[in-house]
Specification:
With about 300 residues, the protein is an alpha/beta fold. Helices cover about 45% and strands about 25% of the residues.
């Protein structure tokens, strides 16, 4: 068995294609196919099912990839370790941040980081669905993600708590509830609601109303908090969401009531892979918004 055979096998799985893998390993497609046949002969198994132009791992192929994948991932991590040792202010960093966290907390952080570390190739995605964010980490598309705490989809992932935000009720300043000192779930259930579509905030209000067996009327579900706020003006509509999305001008133009006692808090933090090397670029970015977290990340 040769290393190039295992590398070809690894790249076929990663790219889903013999032709793309051949380009990466600098071999002809026929040479790569020959390498895979040699591997299959050596182990006396079938590694791939060919479905037209697509390839799919067999069960035996999956077992081999669980070993080979770890080996080549470790090699990639080693490259990053060496790069960090030689130059801590260069490299690459790709992250995902939930839309609300970016809009209300991380815009200045990102701008400061880019200005401070121009040698780091920085890329950012916004993803409101943290399950998608977790998938991106597992697929190697991003180094880490910042968003609401949700159930982890894999034992290869971990979540590092950053901050908890109370749930708030927002409404027009002339809304009947804006004059109440103590607001109940029954009060809220009497008015139409415009709510966010994804994440822990939705789970919070669903569980709260279900616990009291109260029905409620959702007239709109959207992803953008800015759109929600526009609909609250001059209307009887209410909205419930995490206080992470409350800006100073909101408290001037609308009524914002803390309803943490009704809907609890939403936790935000960092999603990352247990198997991934935590580079200095990752720690430097985290230092910009929560220095105490950098020391809690696993060391290389």
């Amino acid at each position: 068995m040769e290393l190039i055979q295992l590398l070809s096998f690894y790249q076929i799985v990663q790219t889903g294609s013999f032709s793309r893998a051949s380009g990466i390993v600098c071999r002809s497609q026929s040479a790569v196919s020959h390498q895979i046949r040699k591997l299959e002969e050596e182990f006396n198994v079938k590694l791939f099912d060919r479905l037209g132009k697509k390839v799919k791992l067999t069960e035996e192929g999956g077992i081999l990839f669980s070993i080979v994948g770890t080996f080549f991932n470790d090699l990639e991590n080693l490259k990053k370790i060496y790069a960090d040792m030689h130059c801590g202010r260069s490299g690459e960093l790709t992250i995902a941040v939930s839309r609300n966290a970016l809009a209300y907390w991380f815009t200045d952080v990102v701008k400061s980081f880019i200005n401070e570390f121009p040698g780091i190739k920085f890329k950012l995605f916004t993803r409101s669905d943290v399950l998608v964010m977790q998938e991106m980490i597992l697929n190697g598309e991003i180094d880490f993600g910042i968003g609401m705490k949700e159930q982890l989809i894999s034992k290869k992932l971990d979540f590092l708590f950053w901050k908890a935000f109370d749930m708030v009720l927002m409404m027009d300043k002339n809304h009947p509830l804006s004059r109440k000192k103590s607001i109940t779930l029954t009060d809220i259930s009497k008015y139409p609601l415009i709510l966010t579509r994804l994440g822990g905030t939705k789970k919070a209000y669903e569980e709260a109303f279900a616990g009291k067996r109260l029905s409620y009327d959702i007239v709109m579900e959207v992803d953008s908090m800015d759109i929600i706020k526009k609909f609250l003006h001059d209307s009887k509509v209410l909205s419930i969401f995490s206080s992470i999305a409350v800006a100073k001008e909101d408290e001037r133009d609308l009524t914002v009531c803390n309803v943490g006692h009704l809907f609890g808090k939403v936790e935000y933090g960092i999603y990352y892979s247990r198997d991934k090397f935590i580079s200095s670029a990752m720690k430097q970015f985290i230092n910009f918004f929560a220095p105490e977290l950098a020391d809690r990340l696993p060391s290389c």
